[in-house]
Amino acid sequence: MAPKTTVNPPYENKFKSIRARRQVLTGLGAAVTFPMVSHQSAHSAELTHRERQRGKPMQPKPIIIAHRGASGQRPEHTLAAYQLAIDQGADYIEPDLVMTKDGHLICRHENEISGTTDVATKPEFADRKKVQIIDGMKVEGWFTEDFTLAEIKTLRCKERLPQLRPANMAYDGLYFIPTFEEVVELAAAQSKIVGRLIGVYPETKHPSWFESLNLSFDEPLISLIKKYSMDDPRAPIFIQSFEVSNLKRLKTKTRVRLIQLMAREGGPFDGAGQGLTYAQMSLPEGLAAISAYASGVGPEKTMILPRNVGNEALAPTSFVQNAHKVGLQVHPWTFRAENYFLSNRDRRGNPAEVTYLMQQGDLVGEIQAFLALGVDGVFSDFPGIAFEARETL
């Protein structure tokens, strides 16, 4: 049985826009700027049901960050995935950013694009396949830095995880690769259409690699931030990176909020020479150092709720409390509905079934466990489910 891909009807009906659907398929019109709404007012307009019952003072709701859009139900990093995420109640839509040969910011999970586009079927691009060492890893395929934006726009997107999400393959070939500006335009336009602030949460991918090619993210990224009146810590934007030096540099060039990403293993590529690890960065002194240049951290979720080798959930760590002590927001990643990504506690179904790992488990329960620990937001491939988890806590 294929994983469920139906949209939760109340959220679909609440946020649906015929105009927006037309924009997704045909492209967007003139640029629009975001309404200036503070982070506090944008995400604390209502109390949760429990807060109303208990009479607690109003607190900002944790934000729902649509990880590459509603990527559990549409091919990731497409305008269709971002639009569906907005329909389902996401507060922020998250584009990973890479660069073209002519310096444009486009939305792909990696600069190697054979896994998410039809580039391998294009005979005119066959000679561009190559092998490169990127951040110390050998990678073979087609790379965005070898294509102009015009060439990129001839490609069409496809599902990255067909083994787990075969239903999404029905959308293969329908959508083009959006630029970051097109995603910003979508968020700004939808903010006005649906009457609530939709933010963007871009990640700079492999910044050191692109800088080695004289393709820095800084100028085009900051140019767009200023063009859309977002150079303000209250603006609906976060910029995230697994590296450190580019965030520190951006700190001197823009006032938008920055997020230091980190994983359970390894360390930032640009810190490899100094032996810096994410484990060190997650210690109280490491978090204090991060607070000098970032507004928050995006840890892998198992840094908060670890698992043992048997995939059993363990007791929570003190990561959230330690981060909050030094003024950092905490936005863990990535919350996905399929059993494959869940701990044994949250998996559902019969393990003997062939499709067991594709089937959906209790993602609401998993997200609510993190919300109960005080996280300030969650990255999810299923923003509709994340919305349900937040609203029913």
TrEMBL record:
Q: What is its EC number?
A: 3.1.4.46
Q: Write down the superkingdom of origin.
A: Bacteria
Q: Which residues form the GP-PDE domain?
A: 62-390
Q: Which family does it belong to?
A: Belongs to the glycerophosphoryl diester phosphodiesterase family.
Residue spans crossing the bilayer? none
PROSITE patterns of this UniProt entry? GP_PDE (PS51704)
CDD domains membership: GDPD_ScGlpQ1_like
- Please name the PANTHER family in this protein's record: GLYCEROPHOSPHODIESTER PHOSPHODIESTERASE GDPD5-RELATED, GLYCEROPHOSPHORYL DIESTER PHOSPHODIESTERASE
Asked if Hydrolase is a keyword of the record, the answer is: yes
Read off the lineage from the record.
Bacteria, Pseudomonadati, Pseudomonadota, Alphaproteobacteria, Caulobacterales
Task: Describe the reaction catalysed, as an equation.
Answer: a sn-glycero-3-phosphodiester + H2O = an alcohol + sn-glycerol 3-phosphate + H(+)
What name is this protein filed under? glycerophosphodiester phosphodiesterase
**The entry's keywords:** Glycerol metabolism, Hydrolase, Signal
